[in-house]
Amino acid sequence: MIEVRELTKRYGGTVAVDRLSFRVRPGAVTGFLGPNGAGKSTTMRVLLGLDAPSSGAALVNGGPYAALRRPMHEVGALLDAGAVHGGRRAFDHLGWLARSNGIGTRRVAEVLERVGLAGVARKRVGGFSLGMRQRLGIAAALLGDPGVLMFDEPVNGLDPDGVRWIRELMRALAAEGRTVLVSSHLMSEMELTADRLVVIGRGRLIADTSVRELADRFARGVLVRSPRPEELVGVLSAAGGTVEAAAGGALSVAGLDATQIGDRAAAHGIPLYEVTPRSASLEEAYMELTAGSTEFGAVGS
Ligand SMILES: Nc1ncnc2c1ncn2[C@@H]1O[C@H](COP(=O)(O)OP(=O)(O)OP(=O)(O)O)[C@@H](O)[C@H]1O
């Protein structure tokens, strides 16, 4: 469990995180979304004890990172995959981390297997591709078998196979009952990976929602086509719907869902040729939510 409570982090005159509060629960992938400079990395760094809060709290399993007795067994993180000495072999890098945390080498082999690096365990990290480094960073995060995992922009720069692999891993880790927080500035990615979304802009909370709720919130009514539109307008209006003419002779209905529209039409023997619930794409919803909180908006916007 992750809990951020009224967290504020200032760097000199810059407020990177501004009274931010949210919780991340186990058993789900929570996407941590926001435009560049929104404060995602800062929040994660404070959660991991790499930066101190200016005020408020960032808690893992009920306490600040510094209070965790066996941190590597409680929380694992991937912040910057490039931060491994290139001369080290993958196995030795993880072995050193494991030893300094009282973890046996058998676990090193296990995590290398899980991230698909078993075959290159004895190779030097300097020759690794970005995707392989990313996997190595994830292996390190998994070493202590922690219940809480944080990944900062894990798919940046990866090819489609790498992106899919990370997506499936996150989902598997959540299905094992872990708390998974993954930051991104791409809604298109989170739409496929996350169950819940915490959206921030300029350090502040914009939305804390499930992907489903967000889609519903930005629903755009139902498009209906019938050979007897006048009658249908009467029936749907009487049922509490608001009906407007749409392009090509179709009707746009708000206030009733597709099932209600179908049932009413059937009850009155009115044929329907099309019933299409419409919603803004999550990308559009995200753009709308974060409009005004991007660091460098387009000129004139
Ligand atoms: N060490 C620091 N010193 C000064 N300012 C900082 C520092 N770290 C972050 N900031 C500022 O805090 C704000 C939030 O940055 P942060 O990196 O947390 O955002 P982010 O949401 O992770 O963005 P990105 O998607 O670009 O990584 C930015 O304005 C950034 O310039």
TrEMBL record:
Ranges of residues in domain ABC transporter: 2-227
GO molecular function: ATP binding
Assigned keywords, A-Z: ATP-binding, Nucleotide-binding, Transport
Residues annotated as signal peptide: none
SUPFAM superfamilies: P-loop containing nucleoside triphosphate hydrolases
Domain of life: Bacteria
Short name of any one Pfam family annotated for the protein: ABC_tran
InterPro entries: AAA+_ATPase, ABC_transporter-like_ATP-bd, ABC_transporter-like_CS, P-loop_NTPase
Family: Belongs to the ABC transporter superfamily.
Protein name: ATP-binding cassette domain-containing protein
Source lineage: Bacteria, Bacillati, Actinomycetota, Actinomycetes, Streptosporangiales
